[in-house]
Design a protein that fits this description.
Elements: E1 4-9, H1 14-24, E2 29-35, H2 44-47, E3 58-59, H3 63-66, E4 72-75, H4 81-91, E5 95-98, H5 108-115, E6 128-131, H6 133-140, E7 145-148, H7 151-165, E8 175-180, H8 195-198, E9 203-204, H9 213-224, E10 232-237, E11 244-251, H10 258-269, E12 275-277, E13 295-302, E14 307-314, H11 318-332
Parallel strand pairs: 1-2, 1-4, 2-3, 4-5, 5-7, 6-7, 8-10, 12-13
Antiparallel strand pairs: 8-11, 9-10, 11-14, 13-14
Helix pairs in contact: 1-11, 7-9, 7-10
Length: 342
């Protein structure tokens, strides 16, 4: 088949760099535009020396010109700005895969509560499909607008929805504590993220009302078949470049066994190529998912407290961003789902 022509908007950030890494080895994709307002006209290798010798320059984000030469647009842009580009791209018939948070929440009220502004394109929310392939694969096959799942949410939603859908845990009292590498904050110079501040240091942040919380609660409620779920999400910044490790606690329902937990995960993801379920009682490590599109899941059951204990690990820039977008794109265009990702 002909190659899918792909434009990457906001290609000079960490997610943009990861998209280039994946798309350049993708057998069915052709990169036709990479945008950067700051670096327009410069060779990509000026920003990312690893691509020295690559005949590709950054360009201005001129939608009118870019739509002439692309079938798919991946938006690696800040929230708010992504929606501004999604609207004209969709009007031109381009399939849009948004890595920002602009279209993940179904509720405009929740968006305003957590992002402190009115939603920039509320009319598009009904068209958006949540971009987590293992949960929404069939809907993705015909989607024009894909709201790719966030990095923290992916690490929590994938294991948690399996547990809740199986009916083996309470929807009350769920706690998720997650650790993220510094690249999750984006490619910017900001005091809390420079080396002397991060090195040899671990800290919790955003422990109440983190922006990813409503996205996680939304998807867990769908899986559990309830209107709402309220939970605690406690993110931590840890001194590594990339990776997310999450620990999630549930109150097990009476009579639930360790085998029941394993069965729930296996029933949900046993045939998924990008989810790896560990043997019972093992915990996840970020080094085993580094630069992969895999989510690793470990599980245990504490008889002393009656808690189901889940651990998960992903690479925040791959399964948590660029790899997820490409996986969704592959599904939408009828390609091998793993193309460019193995």
């Amino acid at each position: 088949m002909n190659k899918v022509r792909v434009a990457v908007f906001g290609a000079s950030g960490y997610a943009g760099e990861e998209l280039l890494r994946i798309l350049l080895r993708h057998p069915n994709a052709e990169i036709t535009a990479v945008t950067s307002r700051k670096n327009a006209g410069e060779p990509v290798s000026n920003v990312f020396p690893r691509y020295t010798g690559l005949n590709l320059n950054f360009c201005a984000p001129d939608v009118a010109e870019i739509v002439k030469k692309c079938d798919a647009a991946i938006l690696a842009l800040p929230h708010g700005l992504a929606a501004e580009y999604a609207v004209p791209l969709l009007e031109a018939g381009i399939k849009v895969f948004d890595i920002s948070a602009d279209f993940r929440l179904r509720s405009t009220a929740k968006y305003k509560e957590y992002y402190k502004v009115d939603h920039p394109a509320p009319a598009l929310l009904s068209r958006a499909v949540y971009g987590l392939p293992e949960r929404y694969r069939e809907q993705l096959r015909s989607a024009d607008l894909v709201a790719c799942a966030g990095c923290y949410p992916t690490s929590i939603i994938l294991p948690s929805t399996a547990i809740l859908a199986a009916g083996i845990a309470s929807t009350k009292g769920i706690v998720a504590a997650s650790c993220s590498g510094v690249s999750g904050a984006g490619r910017k110079v900001d005091l809390p993220y420079i080396f002397p501040e991060c090195n040899e240091n671990v800290k919790a942040y955003g422990v109440v009302a983190h922006r990813h919380l409503p996205e996680i609660e939304q998807e867990l409620a769908v899986a559990a078949g309830v209107d709402e779920i309220a939970m605690n999400f406690i993110p931590h910044l840890v001194p590594m470049n990339r990776g997310i490790n999450s620990t999630i606690l549930f109150d097990a329902k009476p009579g639930v066994t360790l085998e029941d937990v394993g069965k729930a995960l296996d029933d949900a993801y046993g045939k998924e190529q990008f989810v790896r379920i560990l043997p019972a009682k093992r915990t996840c490590e970020t080094k085993y998912v580094f630069m992969t599109n895999t989510c690793e899941i470990g599980y245990n059951l504490d008889p002393h407290t009656g808690k189901i204990i889940i651990t998960s690990a992903i690479d925040n820039l791959t399964k948590g961003a660029a790899g997820q977008a490409v996986q969704c794109m592959n599904i939408r265009f009828g390609l091998d789902e793993a193309a460019g990702l193995l």
